[in-house]
Structures are given as C-alpha cells and as structure tokens.
Amino acid sequence: MRKTVWANGLALTAAAILASTGTADAAATSMGTDATFKVGVDIQPGIYKTTTAASVCAWARLSAITPDASATIQTGGAVNGTATVEIKPTDVAFFTSGCGTWTLQTTTTTSGSSGLTSGSASGSGLFPTGSSSASS
User: Fold this and answer.
1) What is the extent of the structural domain holding 93?
2) d(C-alpha 32, C-alpha 102), whole Å
3) How confident is the model over 28-53, as pLDDT tens digits?
4) In the chain, what is the greatest distance between 2 CA atoms, to the nearest angstrom?
5) Segment 72-95, tens digit of pLDDT
6) Is residue 73 part of a domain?
7) In a domain, 113, yes or no
8) Which of 68, 78, 98, 100 is 20 to 30 A (C-alpha) from 32?
9) Model confidence, pTM
10) Cα distances (Å, whole numbers) of residue 14 to 3, 74, 85, 128, 133
11) Is 118 within a domain?
12) Number of domains in the chain
C-alpha cells in the first residue's frame, strides 16, 4: 500500500521520499538535487533558502526515514521560486523535489535558538520575501 503526503496541493508518495538519499556538498551548506537528506550527516541543521525553485516545488521535514506519513513534521512549497525553511537539529531528514538549490543562511544550534522562527508544524513554513515569520 502506498501512502501519500500532501504538500501545498502536491502529492508526494512515501516511495519518492525513500527513493533516493542525496548528498550535500562537502561543507554541507547546500542541497542541489531532488532527494532525502539526513540531518547531521548530509546537511547541517539551520535556515535554508532557495530562489531557484521550479513551478512545482515541494519539501518536507521528517522525524524518520519511513514510508509512514506520520513521520512528516512539516511540508511546504515555493512561492514565486522562493522558499525558506528551518531544518531543526531534532529533524531526522529533509526531503526536497523541484526546489532547485537550497543554501544555508544561518546555522541552528542544538538548543534551537537561531533567532528566526519557522512557524508551527501545522503552518506552511514558507516565508514571503522580506518576512521572518510564516503567515497563518
């Protein structure tokens, strides 16, 4: 049975989340491929931004690498090619598809105090350009 995760109207199958694990660059400060990245292994926790997203961009913060949709902490997409997300040190993985290159803006400490907020897990997690908080 295939489970589906909905992200801003886009269906992402759990199989796609598990299909590939990407590798970030040597410094782990950017992600340039569609893949699932392990936090602390492939990428550093922190605030990431993309300005090169395709018209269909979807991402998800994950509490586990599993086909179970309950592992989804937060999902989102891009607005006008731009998206920002805070990947927390407690996240297990980050899935991205069609979002272009994500670049680390600010690292997040293990206490989670980066100075910026990403909204709640029930929010979209998207920041409009020039804003530092998610809109409800």
Assistant:
1) 4-107
2) 6
3) 789 999 999 999 999 999 999 999 88
4) 42
5) 999 999 888 899 999 999 999 999
6) yes
7) no
8) 68
9) 0.64
10) 6, 14, 20, 28, 28
11) no
12) 1
